[in-house]
Amino acid sequence: MPDTRWMEAVDRWRSLSREERRRRHLEAIPRHVANSMAMEGEPVSEAWIRERLARRIQPPATSKPRSAS
């Protein structure tokens, strides 16, 4: 009997909303980068990558206070 677990995983992935698939994909990027750098002999921690990304993704500070709408 063929192993069909991969087909079940694909079905679960496809049943997720587009937003959830995007969130999970973006969540995995730092792990992939850390693994790739380790393979190249330049290890870096996933936590370090996540910390740097969090700094870059923060919304810019504005000089004007937000108006209450």
Furnish the topology, listing elements before pairings.
Layout: H1 5-15, H2 18-39, H3 46-57
Description of the structure:
The chain contains three helices and no strands. It has 69 residues and is an all-alpha fold. The protein has a domain at 12-55. Helix 2 (18-39) packs across helix 3. The model has no long low-confidence stretch (mean pLDDT 87).
Task: Provide the β-strand percentage band.
Answer: under 5%
What is the CA–CA distance across the termini?
61 Å
Q: How many individual helices?
A: 3
Helix-strand pattern, N to C? HHH
Question: From the alpha-carbon coordinates, what is the Rg to the nearest angstrom?
Answer: 19 Å
Poorly predicted runs are none
Sheet/helix structural class:
mainly alpha
How many strands? Answer: 0
Provide the residue-averaged pLDDT: 87
How does the overall form come out from the CA principal axes? flat
Share of helix, binned: 55-70%
Biggest sheet record: none
